[in-house]
Structure of EAL domain-containing protein:
Amino acid sequence: MIIDDDPDVHSATTFALGSLEIQHRPLSFLHAYSASEARAILETESDIAIILLDVVMEQEDAGLQLVNYIRKSLKLSDVRIILRTGQPGYAPEIDAIRDYDINDYKTKSELTRTKLYTAVTSAIRSYEQICDINASRHGLENVINASTELMALHGLSHFAEGVLTQINHLLGISAEGFICARQNPLVKDEHANDLHIVAATKAFSDLLEQPISAIRQTKAIDVITKSLAEGQSIYGNDATVLRFNNPARKDFTLYLENGLRLNEMDKRLLEVFCSNVSVGLDNVVLTSRLHNYAFYDVLTGLSNRLKLLQTLNEIIASPLKNHSTLSLIDIDHFAETNDALGHHFGDLLLYSVAQRLSNHFGCECKLARVGSDTFALVGDQKLVCPENILALFTKPFDVDNQEVQLSATIGLIKLDEYDGDGSEALKDTNIALKRAKTHQRGGYEYFTRSMGVEIRERVLLMHALRAAFEHQRLFVVYQPQIDIRSGKILGAEALLRWRTDDGKFIPPDQFIPIAEYSGLIVDIGEWVLRSACHELVYLRGLGYTEFQMAVNVSQVQFSHPLFLQTLNKALEDTKAPPQFVELEITESMAMKDPELLIKTLRQIKQLGVSISIDDFGTGFSSLSHLQKLDIDKLKIDRAFVNDIQENASEGSIAKMIVQLGQNLGLAVIAEGVENQMQADTLLSYGCNLAQGYFYAKPLTRGDLHAWLENRPSH
């Protein structure tokens, strides 16, 4: 029967199938051009093998409604319904297969003549088999009912249990048995290639989740192995093995301890049932796999972040909250281990950590892997505490026949003191973890409200800084640098400032670290460099041809792979003379990676740009490394200048820095000079260069130009 509102579809179908014969019998056709017309025909004509049914006719779901009418109202369970649609959006394949009792689903575009032949032939043979079985055995209704019930079951184990139950019901027996399937273990072990028992009757219940090698009866293993090797079911005198074929190749196999003496019709009954089970099994396997990917970590088998959030929300909404703690466990220096020993070793290492945590906490706590090398643990406060967790890392881990000693850093939050939901709890525990990693690796921190306030303020400041940069609310000021002896203007240091819309200034020591942390400093730093170079060129045009411009460069900016390219392009684009541009780097930055720094500084010097070490004396310099650096100047930190008092014994550190600079042949400049006494003392030490409020505060471009004009000389 062809049910479609398009006459061309009827013509094309009869033309394609007109010559087809099944078992030497030609096809005959019934035609309906609407769902209502089909209903009228079906009420009088019940001997129909196949219905080729369109979805969209007089209504968008007319075809789907007709399926329900055929199956439920007319009770026509034998007829094979092949759903054909030119508009899959009105009846998505998965929804249609799941929600409606159809036997096949095809889009009209994919139904070539050959595929239509195949689908119809297969459907007719299936129909004839059903009719033959019906004629000799009324138990076919049980097969259909059993299959329908199985389709409603979710999860491989539930599905397998249902198959065992339905087999016993269909055959009218009470046989003990089990179902096994491939589990595809994540980590290879001695049973990696074994079938695992996924469902069992009472007699075999102790073998659940075990490999079949754990079965005591060797005859069971032998007959299952034989069935798998031959790819077919085995009906033995003492045992029966039913083999279910499915594309996923999970080797889904049912073992019954009874030998079934079945006639050919009984076997055909079972084959039909097994065929239906195989279709359902494909869906169950796919659903199980998607469920596992959605909620479980592929490597360790533990819950993932999404599953943990569900668990946390359940705990927070229950009385368990009153005595529960959430902890994040971060493996120290895992990235280095991964890089040094390879990702496969790293995976085995993580699996080993997961196993130890699971073995210790698994029964009473919930465990998850929420990051590359970060695990989450939630449970009773007495169990989930730093002492218990860190104790597990005192012994080395056995990984690939190697002993590996690890340490971990922990962040924790007590849920009884918490008002937020699961995602907020996880976020705040991560804040505590980051604080612990900052303070001391191998230690721990509990989350406090003050941590949350501080982090949120930093995040708000970061977003505000980004907006300020994009809307040009950042600006550059210039603090003059002076020759103490002559009062001559040597140049200026370019300094970044931020003024909010309401006129409030944000101190640089607040927003510069945020810019570095967020990576925004790279773009801001390039803009400051270009602004300073443009100003240098402008001042040279005013006649200040010996004016030198100093620009600060942060660690993040300096270590960026494109920094040298950015510097060179800024010089080229602005036409700033490199010999009058000075880059200031911090002392701690200079000592962080001396070898890389030496190479980079050499390339910078080749451009003609000079280098100054800023805030000298505040870090922990290695003089041997300092001596190797191709630098031009040391800058005495303002803290040491402030120590210079009338008492001659004070200011000794500043004096030592001046002497060090002289010994290394470097220029020395002092920052933060605020009075004549400091200037005179520095001059007596041999420091001739200075900047500070005693000479001029940081000035905007306009103020700098006015200040320069009012000086006695250029």
Q: What stands out?
A: Residues 264-295 form the longest helix (32 residues). DSSP finds 26 helices and 28 strands in the chain. The longest strand covers residues 489-499. Residues 185-192 have pLDDT under 50 and may be disordered.
